[in-house]
Structure formats: structure tokens, C-alpha cells
């Protein structure tokens, strides 16, 4: 099968590409990039007015499979990812059973192959059953294709255990991704400690609970030499620690979610909309501004969704007993386009770095470049297409979006994964 | 007419709303103090559901009496008979009762925001009878009533609210309501009990109880939630009493006409000592009395009781 994408604006800072050209895809590879390409056998895709970028990667999603298939499966999650413009996602290991052995990694990769939409790059747990007590079979998982390691959902509470994890992982070429939370500080916290916890009358989740563990793990990265990545960073001070570590040349990176970029604690009104309950919680407006600054100045390496599907009955209840998290795969790119790229705050190049190049590097995947010979994993973006964020728009299994009701301009219209067109003019292809 | 359709929190109430409630409560207080029939037909034929999802004695009794004295029909739900205990979601519980066509829900819940979730699932009017650590507006109204009855006004009064402020729905409702009425509020407690955002209420916070007592017209002692002692926010009952308890030494430091309030139930020997709880400054039982009248006023105003309903 061949596709000829005609006249799209190609953006790929890896090969200094920023111009309108044609791209010919043959089978699973980019065969040719150039002006006025002809390929009589290829299906032509009109790229005029659109942007073609290396396929987007979300390195932090929860697909709930195995164990919580009523929220999302690898197949339904892959549909949502494709609809959102992604070619690759990294799934977090807090499944049931926990993804802490090679066979669990193999299961996910096999399910993804059957879904045949996007690449699923499972992350393995750092500790057995994510209990923070004993090493998981990390080497076994590396052999089966684990992309990185994390106990996401919890921080590894013991500093000694985390040191062991990082020392052990340092023998493999893999990154340790940490959900940073000192649980003795966050306790029963369900909203940011401060104005929100006071106004809403609920236990606070203090910024310090995140920052202290970021600080600890940066120091552990220093002595172990292990690559360390901070998951869903949310506070200005925490980001400052990362910034300083980078300046020192330590192997430290971090990611941010669209909800921590574009929402804050003040958005939680007296209606107690549980779709705004996440972990870490929405922080102050100043923190959100610092996140937007950090994604522009290079302190933050990538945008991830922390896509966290939950069934309606797990969210349609009182805030304190509702589950943490919101879905995000189908709003991530539209939010970045509408808030950052199209208004000119962020360049297309930077968007490609934080949504494709950097996460691919952190997951130790082969680079995808818009050049002949590269894997044909590509996302075509229509900056004019309107997205109404409604339950009907969301094709994943769960509808718990923090952005329901929003109208956004700009989204993916076509996606190619190994040369297969998985998103066709906004519609997800059949598996 | 109140500016709000439901009584969920006090920051939503205007000074005029509060004044209306307190003035109306006065008429009901008169009815409640009658020797004879303490009942008016104001809410005859209206159905009120008391949905108490966490244990409560005084608030529940107060509401029930208030409803009976207004001639409303009542239905009590909650506790061990509650369907919520059986695993039904709040939305389903409310929709089920709503299908029986009721006029009002009085909601007490362990979880903050529950009254709003109730509102989303019914057309009936909702009164918040205390939700988690969030709000307890009907407590605030009875407190304001009690204080106003003593001083004749609320503006310019100095009020200290003392105790576990961070976890107190009483403080959450009382402090904003006092501010709306022009009183000066000072929050007092150990640093581990102060509110997370000291700027939220726009009033000073201090851990030096003795220094503020001489300036106060009202010393409002909060109940220490003994069940929340775990996690060691304070080391012991004895130490708390010594540093923050209202004892006779502190009582003698108060202004001559200053009063003592407490929402109950009291931990005698902890936040308040017996000799003070029962002294003549204490308005603690007046607060309880005011609770029935102010709750009658709130239900009456929200349900738009008949204009001639006050006579019988």
C-alpha cells in the first residue's frame, strides 16, 4: 500500500524540515520526501493547509487492561489514542495483575497487535505488585519489550527501595519514571492544599508532598546515574528543582499534562465536578503559568495526558469518594494547538519536540523522522478543524474528560502507523 | 424572599438574606416559647426529607422539631437504614426519593459537596445540614441569632473562633457569615489546626489565645474532633486544654459583657471546662433554642410558606 501526502507543511526539527512538500509512503516506510512527487499507484491524501509531523507519542496513559476492562481496554484506548492523533502510547503498569513481569508486557503488546491501531509501549512496574517492597522482574520485562519503568499511581515511599530500583535499572538503557508523592504528607488529600482545600472543605494535597520526592529522586539519580523522569509535574517549585538538576547535567527529565497546563484549582467550583479530581491535584494559577513557561523554555521535556479512564459511576458521586484522573488522549493535541501553537506562543517545532521527539527518546524508541527510510509513523494535523469536546466526540470507553463542553480549533485528521492509515479524515479505521 | 433558592453555604448569602432569616426566626422563637400550642400551619402539606448520611443528634432533632412546628410532613432517612449503606449511589437514592415528589431535602453528610450533588438530582429545595469539613450554614444562622439577641447587633463585634479550624464546617460557615454582617473575626488554634489558606477568610489567625481574649465580645469554642486526633495534630487532651481550653482563668480575662458559645457536643475538660460551660456568660443552651427557630425560618423562607401561615 502506498500513500502520497500532497502539499502538507512538514515540520521536523530533527531534519531541519519546515516547508511545504510531498511525502510518499510505501509499505511501512517513508519512501521519498520532495516537491511535486508523482506516484500513480499511491492513494493521494490532500495535505494542503495541514501540517505533517512525526507521529505523536503519549508516554503516560492508563489502559486498564488487564483487570479494569470496564474502564478501558487496550483496543478502546488505542482507538482514543488514534482519534487524538497518536501513533505511540506508553501504558502504565497499574493494571490487575500489576504489569510486573515479562508475560504481562507480552500480553499488552499482543493485545495492541490485535487492535492494530497504534503502537503500545508498555511500562513495567519498578517493584513487585507496585508495593514498593521488592524489585519487579525488570530485566525480564526489558527482554519482552518494556519501554520504561514506573510505579505510577504511587511514589516508591522508601528512599532505600527507590535507590535499589534506580541502581538496578541503571544496567539497562531505560528511564525510571516516578509519580512523586510523599504519602505521609498527602494523606487523605483530594485537592490542592491551600485556597482550594479551605474553600471546598476537604483535605489538602500539599505541593510539598510532590516536591520533596522530586528532590529525593534527583539526588538518587545523582548517586546511581540512572535516568530519572518526573511524571506529571505540577508545581513551580518542583519544576525549579528539575531545572537546577538539568543545569548541573544530571540525567533528569520531566513531563506535564494538559490539565496542569491549562486548568488550576480555581476551576474547581462549588459544583464539585469530579472530572477535575486528579492526582497530583490541579494546582494554583501561578503553578499552571510556570508549567506553560517550562514547556516553552525546555525545562519540561514532554506533554503527556495521564489518560485515566473511569466508569461513569466512579465519577458520578461525591468528590471525596470519586476516583482520581481524567481521560486526555483526544483533547491533548487540540488543547496544545488552541492554547499554545495557533496563538503563536509555541512554535510547531517545539510542539513536535514535546509531543513526538522527546517522548520517543525517553521510551528508547527508534527516532521517526520525516525523511526517506524512516518508519511511516506520521500525524497529519488540520489547524482549522473544530473539535467540540462532548461525550460523543470521545471514542474511548470512558468519558471523564476535564474539558467537556469546550470547543477547540485544530486537531489530527490523519494518522499513519507503519504506513497504515489508522485515522482517516478524522475517523478511526477499523482494527 | 432570599436571594438563594437553596441553603448550601454562607458565602452565597447576602447581609439582607441573613437579616431576613434572623428577623423571621424571631417570630418563630416567640411561637416556640409559648406555653400552649407550639405549632403553626405554615408548611402544611409540604413534604420534607431529612437525609442524614452521618450520625447527628442535635441537628437532626432540631430540624425535626422545626418541621413539626411548621406542620410539614417529614420523612427521616439515613443511618443504618440508609440505602447508601447498602451500596446505592447518592444519585440513585435522591432520584428515588425525588420520584415520590417531595418538596425539600435536609442533607447531612460526611462528604463535602454532597448537598450540591443532591441538588443536581432533584427539583426539590436543598438545605445543607453539614457536609464534611465544608459548610454548616444552619449552625451559623443559629449562632448569629444567639449573638445578635445578646448584643442587639452584629456589626463591629469582635469574635474569636477557637479550635480545630482546618477541619471545621462550623468555622467554614460562621466566619464568612460574621464577616458579611460586619463583625471582626479572629481565628485561634494551634498551628496544626489553622486553615490551609490563611488569606481565605480575610481574618487574622493566631496561636496566642490569651492575647486576644481581652478584646473579644464573643469567644466561640469549637469542638475538637476526638476521632481526628490520630496523626497527632495535638499531643494530648491535657495539653490542648492547658493551651487552648476555655477555663476560669481565661474566662476572667473576658470583657464584662462578653459571651461564650459552643456548637456542641462539648468535650468538657478539653476545649471547655465545666465551670465555664455552665457560667452565666455561656449562651450554649440559647444556641440550641435558637436552632429550632432559625431552622423554621430558613425552611419557611425557602419554601415560600403561606403569608398567613404564622397565625394559627
List keywords for this structure.
heterodimer; A: 431 residues; alpha/beta; Urease, subunit C, domain 1; TIM Barrel; 9-stranded mixed sheet; 23% strand; B: 312 residues; Rossmann fold; 2 domains; 4-stranded parallel sheet; 9 strands; globular
Secondary structure elements and pairings:
The complex is a heterodimer of chains A (431) and B (312).
Chain A: E1 2-12, E2 17-26, E3 29-34, E4 43-46, E5 51-54, E6 56-61, H1 74-84, E7 86-91, H2 102-115, E8 119-120, H3 138-144, E9 149-150, H4 159-169, E10 176-178, H5 183-186, E11 191-192, H6 195-200, E12 204-205, H7 207-224, E13 228-230, H8 236-247, E14 252-256, H9 258-262, H10 285-297, E15 302-303, H11 312-315, H12 332-341, H13 348-362, E16 378-388, E17 407-417, E18 420-424, E19 427-428
Parallel strand pairs in A: 1-4, 1-5, 6-7, 7-8, 9-10, 10-13, 11-12, 13-14, 14-15
Antiparallel strand pairs in A: 1-2, 2-3, 5-16, 16-17, 17-18, 18-19
Helix pairs in contact in A: 1-2, 2-3, 4-7, 7-8
Chain B: H1 15-32, E1 47-52, H2 58-69, E2 73-78, H3 90-98, E3 104-109, H4 114-119, E4 125-131, H5 137-151, E5 158-162, H6 169-180, E6 184-188, E7 205-206, H7 209-212, E8 218-221, H8 237-244, H9 248-252, E9 259-261, H10 274-277, H11 284-302
Parallel strand pairs in B: 1-2, 1-3, 3-4, 5-6, 5-8, 6-7, 8-9
Q: In words, what does this structure look like?
A:
The complex is a heterodimer of chains A (431) and B (312). Chain A is of the alpha/beta class and 431 residues long. Chain A has two domains: 2-52 and 372-428, Roll (Urease, subunit C, domain 1), CATH 2.30.40; 55-362, Metal-dependent hydrolases (TIM Barrel, Alpha-Beta Barrel), CATH 3.20.20.140. In chain A, 30% of the residues lie in helices and 23% in strands. Chain A is built from 13 helices and 19 strands. Chain A has helices at residues 74-84, 102-115, 138-144, 159-169, 183-186, 195-200, 207-224, 236-247, 258-262, 285-297, 312-315, 332-341, 348-362; strands at 2-12, 17-26, 29-34, 43-46, 51-54, 56-61, 86-91, 119-120, 149-150, 176-178, 191-192, 204-205, 228-230, 252-256, 302-303, 378-388, 407-417, 420-424, 427-428. In chain A, the strands form four sheets. In chain A, strands 1, 2, 3, 4, 5, 16, 17, 18 and 19 form a nine-stranded mixed beta sheet that branches. A five-stranded parallel beta sheet of chain A has the order 9-10-13-14-15. In chain A, strands 6-7-8 form a three-stranded parallel beta sheet. In chain A, strand 17 and strand 18 (420-424) form a beta hairpin. Chain B is of the alpha/beta class and 312 residues long. A five-stranded parallel beta sheet of chain B has the order 7-6-5-8-9, covered by helices on one side. In chain B, helix 2 (58-69) packs across helix 11 and helix 5 (137-151) crosses helix 11 (284-302). Classes of the chains: A alpha/beta (431), B alpha/beta (312). Chain A binds chain B through residues 187, 193-195, 197-204, 270-272, 313, 316-321, and chain B through 8-9, 89-91, 109, 111-114, 116-117, 120, 131-135, 166, 169, 172, 195-197, 199-201, 231.
Amino acid at each position: 500500500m502506498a500513500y502520497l501526502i500532497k502539499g502538507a507543511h512538514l515540520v521536523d526539527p530533527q531534519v531541519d524540515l519546515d516547508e511545504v512538500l510531498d511525502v510518499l509512503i510505501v509499505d511501512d516506510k517513508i519512501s521519498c520526501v520532495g516537491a511535486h512527487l508523482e506516484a500513480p499507484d499511491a492513494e493521494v491524501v490532500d495535505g494542503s493547509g495541514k501540517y505533517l509531523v512525526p507521529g505523536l507519542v503519549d508516554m503516560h496513559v492508563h489502559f486498564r487492561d488487564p483487570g479494569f476492562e470496564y474502564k478501558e481496554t487496550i483496543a478502546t484506548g488505542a482507538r482514543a489514542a488514534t482519534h487524538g492523533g497518536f501513533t505511540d502510547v506508553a501504558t502504565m503498569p497499574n493494571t490487575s495483575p500489576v504489569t510486573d513481569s515479562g508475560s504481562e508486557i507480552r500480553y499488552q503488546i499482543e493485545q495492541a497487535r490485535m487492535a492494530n491501531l497504534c503502537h503500545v509501549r508498555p511500562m513495567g512496574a519498578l517493584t513487585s505488585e507496585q508495593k514498593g517492597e521488592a524489585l519487579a522482574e525488570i530485566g525480564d520485562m526489558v527482554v519482552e519489550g518494556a519501554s520504561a519503568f514506573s510505579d505510577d499511581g504511587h511514589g516508591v515511599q522508601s528512599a532505600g527501595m527507590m535507590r535499589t530500583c534506580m541502581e538496578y535499572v541503571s544496567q539497562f538503557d531505560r528511564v525510571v519514571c516516578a509519580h512523586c508523592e510523599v504519602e505521609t504528607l498527602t494523606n487523605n488529600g483530594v485537592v490542592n492544599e491551600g485556597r482550594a482545600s479551605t474553600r471546598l472543605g476537604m483535605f489538602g494535597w500539599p505541593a510539598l508532598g510532590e516536591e520533596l520526592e522530586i528532590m529525593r529522586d534527583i539526588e538518587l539519580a545523582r548517586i546511581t546515574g540512572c535516568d530519572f523522569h518526573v511524571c506529571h509535574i505540577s508545581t513551580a517549585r518542583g519544576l525549579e528543582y528539575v531545572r537546577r538538576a538539568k543545569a548541573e547535567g544530571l540525567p533528569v527529565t520531566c513531563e506535564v499534562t494538559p490539565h496542569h497546563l491549562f486548568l488550576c484549582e480555581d476551576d474547581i467550583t462549588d459544583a464539585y465536578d469530579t472530572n477535575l479530581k486528579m492526582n497530583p491535584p490541579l494546582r494554583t494559577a501561578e503553578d499552571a503559568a510556570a508549567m506553560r513557561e517550562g514547556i516553552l523554555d525546555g525545562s519540561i521535556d514532554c506533554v503527556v495526558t495521564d489518560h485515566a479512564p473511569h466508569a461513569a459511576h466512579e465519577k458520578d458521586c461525591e468528590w471525596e469518594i470519586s476516583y482520581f484522573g481524567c481521560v486526555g488522549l483526544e483533547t491533548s493535541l487540540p488543547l496544545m494547538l488552541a492554547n499554545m501553537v495557533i496563538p503563536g506562543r509555541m512554535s510547531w517545532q517545539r510542539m513536535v519536540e514535546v509531543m513526538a521527539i522527546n517522548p520517543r527518546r525517553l521510551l528508547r524508541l527508534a527516532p521517526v523522522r520525516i525523511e526517506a527510510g524512516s518508519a511511516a509513523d506520521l500525524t497529519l494535523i488540520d489547524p482549522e478543524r473544530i473539535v467540540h469536546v462532548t461525550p460523543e466526540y470521545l471514542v474511548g470507553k470512558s468519558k471523564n474528560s476535564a474539558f467537556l463542553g469546550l470547543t477547540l480549533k485544530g486537531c489530527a485528521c490523519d494518522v499513519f502507523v507503519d504506513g497504515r492509515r489508522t485515522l482517516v479524515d478524522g475517523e478511526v479505521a477499523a482494527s | 424572599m432570599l436571594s438563594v433558592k437553596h441553603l448550601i453555604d454562607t458565602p452565597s448569602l447576602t447581609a439582607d438574606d441573613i437579616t431576613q432569616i434572623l428577623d423571621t426566626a424571631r417570630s418563630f422563637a416567640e411561637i416556640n416559647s409559648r406555653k400552649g400550642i407550639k405549632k403553626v400551619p405554615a408548611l402544611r402539606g409540604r413534604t420534607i426529607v431529612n437525609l442524614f448520611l452521618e450520625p447527628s443528634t442535635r441537628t437532626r432533632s432540631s430540624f425535626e422539631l422545626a418541621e413539626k412546628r411548621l406542620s410539614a410532613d417529614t420523612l427521616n432517612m439515613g443511618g443504618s437504614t440508609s440505602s447508601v449503606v447498602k451500596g446505592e449511589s447518592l444519585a440513585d437514592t435522591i432520584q428515588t426519593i425525588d420520584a415520590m415528589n417531595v418538596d425539600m431535602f435536609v442533607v447531612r453528610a460526611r462528604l463535602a459537596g454532597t448537598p450540591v450533588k443532591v441538588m443536581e438530582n432533584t427539583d426539590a429545595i436543598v438545605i445543607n445540614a453539614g457536609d464534611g469539613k465544608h459548610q454548616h450554614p444552619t449552625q451559623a444562622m443559629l449562632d448569629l441569632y444567639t449573638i445578635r439577641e445578646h448584643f442587639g447587633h452584629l456589626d463591629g463585634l469582635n469574635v474569636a473562633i477557637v479550635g480545630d479550624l482546618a477541619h471545621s464546617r462550623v468555622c467554614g460557615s460562621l466566619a464568612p457569615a460574621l464577616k458579611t454582617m460586619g463583625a471582626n473575626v479572629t481565628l485561634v488554634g494551634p498551628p496544626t489546626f489553622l486553615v490551609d489558606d490563611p488569606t481565605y477568610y480575610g481574618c487574622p489567625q493566631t496561636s496566642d489565645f490569651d492575647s486576644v481574649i481581652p478584646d473579644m465580645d464573643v469567644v466561640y469554642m469549637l469542638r475538637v474532633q476526638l476521632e481526628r486526633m490520630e496523626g497527632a495534630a495535638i499531643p494530648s487532651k491535657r495539653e490542648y486544654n492547658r493551651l487552648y481550653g476555655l477555663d476560669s482563668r481565661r474566662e476572667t480575662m473576658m470583657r464584662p459583657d462578653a459571651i461564650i458559645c459552643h456548637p456542641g457536643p462539648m468535650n468538657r475538660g478539653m476545649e471547655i471546662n465545666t465551670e465555664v460551660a455552665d457560667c452565666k456568660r455561656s449562651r450554649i443552651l440559647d444556641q440550641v433554642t435558637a436552632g429550632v427557630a432559625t431552622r423554621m425560618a430558613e425552611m419557611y423562607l425557602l419554601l415560600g410558606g403561606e403569608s398567613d401561615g404564622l397565625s394559627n
